Amino acid sequence: MSRIFARGGAAAAILVVSAQGALADLSAQDVWAEWKAYLTSTGYTVSGTESISGSTLTVSDVSMVMPIPEEDGSGTVSLPEIKFVENGDGTVNLLLPAEFPVGFEFSGDGEEFSGKLLYTHDGAPLTVAGDTENMSYDYRSSKVTVTLAELAADGEAVPDGVANAQVTLNDVTTTTDMKIAEVRTYKQALSASSLSYDMGFNDPESNGNGSFKGALEGLSFKGTSTVPTGLDAPDMAALLEAGFAFDGTFTFAGGKGSISGQEGSESFAMESSSEGGSVAIAMDNKHLTYDVSQSGTNVNITGSEIPFPLAISMAEAGFNLMMPLAKSEEEQDFALGVTLRDFALPEMLWGMFDPTGQLPHDPATVVLDLAGKGKVLFDMFDPEAMEALEKGEEQPGELHALTVNQLQVSAAGAELTGTGDFTFNNEDLTSFDGVPAPAGEANLKLTGANALIDKLIQMGLITEGDAMGARMMMGMLAVPGEAEDTLTSKIEISEDGKILANGQRIK
């Protein structure tokens, strides 16, 4: 899928990619040649019938074929016509009809899918300026809509009403500045006042249906990319090795969405809204990074299997991941983070296990921030290596160091916080039952635990015997803190396998 993403992004960028820029003469042929060179460099085979009339170059029956090595097949995107019009001032207008079909075909593993998307916009041109080494694109449209018009599987047309999809962008502005050399670099920006989507399916055989609808407001995107040239039928592994990289951040000011489905007598529905968020993705030949965040999230869930409606809210939700990509005998950095801040459950759900309101119903928070070092011992872009990994014939990697920058879990009046720092000996897999032997320390703080245990006893959720066992365990691992109902613990693991809690050896 990573190859499909990289190359599919190249084809999609053609329709709405853009830029501002330089002052120099360009011909229509220059722009078309650059398009072909760019797509060819990322693995496409590009063809079209060219004709020239005055200052206009028309390319008809445009075909872009993308190999899909994972599926041992290919994908094809086709356009009926593109016009390149020289404006007489050194710039070129790229014209697409106000409404036109975009055909697509995908095949692999004995399966075939094909169809048509109907692309509609206000007919505004994409203006290209610069020269053959520096090109800039500028595109503005009041509205862009992409609608699924036809769909077929294995040569049979999917009946009308079985599947629908439409995506609409309003007040679209895109710009791209491009430097063309042995390695091409791109600086891109996009903004839109809103994006809406409406997708669904209706399966007459299973009597099932589903719907996915939503909208985002105040969209923007900024990013850069580097694309190497001169590769022969490049795949993702070859592109990365040659220097392919991208770094982009997508933000939105607010959004809402709904998902619903039904199969027979069973149904499910979910509605959500948020006050904005961002998605940042970066990739090069060493690392892949994700950083996703969203604020002011509200979710409402109903369904035939759910006894009552659920209303959930979060002040902040986030996820970040940084992982090494390259197989290496050297240690590489990684990171992982999860944030669920002020996660509130509905009172109706609280009432099921706390009907008398003895527990604090304050929103819960979970924060985990990890960083570390490890080795990647397989090539994740090699199909044979991936197959061997799935069969258990190869070890994916080794963990060498782990740092807990932040741990916070708070709920029902209790809170656990902590930090930690450990190294791991991959030569010792016996001391800790197959796990690389750790060495280091963790510092933990627990507040409100005894009060929570007392309330759980009063509610009948745990017995006095259960509580005694829990308190004995806390007494072994922790010591009283300065504040009331506070425990602290320093857990140390030595390189020779000893485990100490607050200086007392427990193993």
From TrEMBL:
The keyword Signal applies. Keywords: Signal. It holds the Pfam family DUF2125. Residues 1-24 form the signal peptide. It comes from the Bacteria. This is DUF2125 domain-containing protein. It comes from Leisingera aquaemixtae.
